[in-house]
Write a structure and sequence with these properties.
Length: about 120
């Protein structure tokens, strides 16, 4: 859920304040705006694909070469201060979309497991 919360905060900042980070954007959930400091930051986490060839991270795509290709998903963090302008690269947009897709798939899997468990127990309500 940390991915979703941060991504929603970035979306709200972009949609309502044209990407200019304000106190509203850095305010932690459940904390009054009056207790938010202008030194607080907007921290966002999402997943990013990390690919490496023979142990060296691939930074640009397309990439040519042979050998041992490894791919893994790692958490990626961005941070903005009050007053900064949010700018997101095309690669970051892809990573955000991928994170949301993973989250949606996890929610679907959890929902299906819950429904199957309820029907298996004889209590479909």
């Amino acid at each position: 859920m940390a991915w979703l919360e941060g991504i929603v905060k970035v979306r709200n900042c972009l949609a309502h304040r044209l990407g200019q980070v304000s106190l509203e954007d850095v305010k932690p959930s459940g904390v009054p705006l009056e207790q938010t400091k202008d030194t607080d930051t907007l921290k966002v986490v999402w997943l990013r694909l990390r690919a490496s060839l023979n142990g060296a991270e691939i930074k640009t795509f397309p990439h040519q070469g042979g050998g041992n290709l490894e791919c893994q998903f790692v958490e990626y963090q961005r941070e903005w201060r009050v007053g900064e302008q949010i700018e997101v690269s095309p690669e970051e947009c892809q990573a955000i979309g991928m994170s949301l897709s993973f989250l949606g798939n996890q929610l679907l899997a959890d929902f299906e497991s819950e429904i199957n468990a309820r029907f298996a127990s004889g209590k479909p309500e």
